Prior knowledge:
Blueprint: E1 11-15, H1 24-36, E2 41-44, H2 55-63, E3 70-76, H3 82-95, E4 101-105, H4 113-116, H5 137-149, E5 179-181, E6 188-190, E7 203-207, H6 214-220, E8 223-227, H7 231-247, E9 256-264, E10 282-284, E11 287-291, H8 294-307, E12 312-317, H9 320-337, H10 350-354
Parallel strand pairs: 1-2, 1-12, 2-3, 3-4, 4-7, 7-8, 8-9, 9-11, 9-12
Antiparallel strand pairs: 5-6, 10-11
Helix pairs in contact: 1-2, 1-9, 2-3, 3-5, 5-6, 6-7, 8-9
Amino acid sequence: MAAPHGRGLLHLAAAVDQEAVHDVSDHGELVRLAERGGFDFVTLGDTFARPEPDALAVLARIASTTTRIGLVPTVTVTHTEPFHLRAAVATLDRVSRGRAGCRIDLSATEGGAGAWNFGRRPAASADASEQASEHDPVHEAGQVADLAALPWDNRAVDAGAHDDASGRPVGPRDEARPADFGGDTFPARGLPTVPRPSQGHPVTVVDATDRRARAAAARCADVALVEGTNPAQVGSVRAELHASALAHGRDPDELRVLAALTVDLGDGERAAEPGHGGGGPRQTGQGPLYRGGPVDLAELIASWHETGAADGFHLTPAEPRRDLERLVNGTVALLQHRGLFRTFYPGSTLREHLGLTRPAKRYAVTREAP
Length: 370
């Protein structure tokens, strides 16, 4: 489906992080509010820097209380083994019936408790160089994402599948091929132990604002988040990511690029402050910030999308409950009225929401006709 200006419909995602909130029901209320607004997915952050519930476990608990919205927890991969990562995310995809993703991130406490809590060496500094190297945690994160996807494709038949001719169950283990990953960080070879996720691969989200993360995003991400204060800035990174994806043998149309903004709608319908609104967000120490009303934000989103700078937006409410309500009741409603954003979920999986194809298996079972 196309928007009135000829481009595809917008994709919208929202962060549902709440500082010092440990009650899962509070997160659940925000996720269901975002689902009422038709958001493609929500993200929930995770970090070793402060005590808080595990994001993946929280969204797994919320999955049964929602029906359509995508659920994307942050996975801090610096000290997380790929085996555990793929098992946990594949399970989330199963319990949500194909609505899971994972946002690949790095620990903010590499040299301290983040490493020692896992009984591991402190990781190399992410600021050590401008280019990702084999000792750089950005490079390591990319290899984790590569390896996490590989074993899901190594089952020729999904768990629970039956032979069409005989009706007999097809055993997934005897149809499995060993993973053979020769990365310099996580070389691995072994049989997959979890069923293939419902949507083939859960959606991989990578923050590509950092130049060193863009190679990994172009190689394996389904969604890339890009911070920017104007459409030209975001559009330039989008073009770079698409060119790099093509060089890696990917179809660039299978990579969604979302502009990432923090939005402060505390002023209600008051016009956007100078440096916001039509002039674009203002750069802050925490990234691009829009401050104004829902109407001006809808205009900003529409104008950026019309230029082709981004496929949509990932919005982080400055005040979670207040701003998400104003996004759903104000900004999203205006975008729907203008025909720029859908009014219902056309499918049931996160890949369908994003217009992404279900990845084909790398191995297929070929059975001769009787």
